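tokens incoming
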């Protein structure tokens, strides 16, 4: 399987972005999907997880601001990010079945 992440960009603090992770095959209904965040100079950390039954879990740092969802017909998982903060800056990676997407850069100014 291959994962392609996209949707990053530059946004002001308080703004929103939606990241996408497209899979090369249908895997999300049978595998847990993760989004990770790697801030500059820091280790990659898990921020959101979606179970095979559709339950979502979030790290404390993004709880209430980020939402993970999936469109099985498009083999795509999303990360809706709202109320963005400068500390959300970094590279976001999707991961499933121990396969990583290439990462998409998010920069929050202000």
């Amino acid at each position: 399987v291959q994962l392609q992440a996209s949707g990053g960009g530059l946004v002001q603090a308080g703004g929103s972005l939606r990241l996408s992770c497209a899979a090369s095959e249908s895997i999300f209904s049978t595998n847990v999907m993760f989004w990770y965040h790697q801030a500059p100079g820091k280790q990659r950390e898990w921020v959101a997880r979606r179970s095979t039954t559709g339950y979502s879990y979030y790290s404390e740092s993004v709880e209430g601001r980020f939402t993970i969802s999936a469109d099985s017909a498009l083999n795509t998982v999303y990360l809706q990010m709202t109320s963005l903060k400068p500390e959300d800056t970094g590279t976001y990676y999707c991961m499933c079945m121990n396969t990583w997407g290439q990462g998409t850069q998010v920069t929050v100014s202000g």
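note: DSSP finds no helices and eleven strands in the chain.
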